[in-house]
């Protein structure tokens, strides 16, 4: 088998893995839509619509992975699949307080915990901005009230 054929087979094998494709919408329709691979920093493409961005991500993935392989750099594995279930032990007082908050808001404890966690984590775009600020050593700007 030739080196080129082995390289193409390795590339094809990588591209068959279940990577996480995330979509980010611009604040206005004119800003379009971005599609990126969560596990591969810098593997991103964009389009005017979600469909257009998704149609382009395959080529971006192939180019990104091929460049990594050519430079003998590591290609990250897909994120593990998450089932949506977390089992955790809470102190009784925290469990009680969370249950009271959920009742006060008229939702189940499960819904309250999921919503509270989502608020704490923020959107994927906020998370990326926060990581970029941390790398740059800057702090978030406060908006004028």
Write a short abstract of this structure.
51% of the residues lie in helices and 10% in strands. By secondary structure, the protein is mostly helical.
For this entry, give a set of tags:
single chain, 145 residues, mainly alpha, 3-stranded antiparallel sheet, 3 strands, elongated
Architecture overview:
The protein has 145 residues and is mostly helical. The protein folds into 2 domains: 68 residues, Double Stranded RNA Binding Domain, CATH 3.30.160; 45 residues. Helix content is 51%, strand content 10%. It contains 5 helices and 3 strands; from the N terminus they run H-E-E-E-H-H-H-H. A 3-stranded antiparallel β-sheet has the order 1-2-3. Helix 1 packs antiparallel against helix 2 and helix 3 packs across helix 4. It starts with a helix and ends in a 9-residue tail after the last helix. 7% of the residues are buried. The model has no long low-confidence stretch (mean pLDDT 83).
């Amino acid at each position: 088998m030739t080196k080129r054929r082995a390289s193409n087979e390795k590339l094809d094998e990588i591209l068959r893995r279940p990577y996480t494709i995330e979509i980010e919408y611009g604040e206005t329709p004119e800003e379009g839509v971005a599609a990126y691979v969560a596990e591969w920093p810098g593997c991103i493409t964009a389009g005017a619509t979600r469909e257009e961005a998704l149609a382009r991500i395959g080529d971006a993935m192939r180019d990104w992975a091929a460049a990594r392989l050519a430079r003998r750099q590591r290609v990250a594995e897909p994120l593990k699949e998450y089932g949506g279930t977390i089992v955790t032990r809470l102190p009784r007082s925290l469990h009680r307080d969370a249950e009271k908050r959920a009742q006060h808001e008229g939702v189940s404890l499960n819904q309250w915990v999921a919503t509270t966690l989502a608020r704490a984590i923020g959107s994927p775009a906020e998370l990326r901005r926060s990581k970029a600020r941390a790398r740059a050593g800057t702090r978030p700007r406060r908006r004028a009230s």
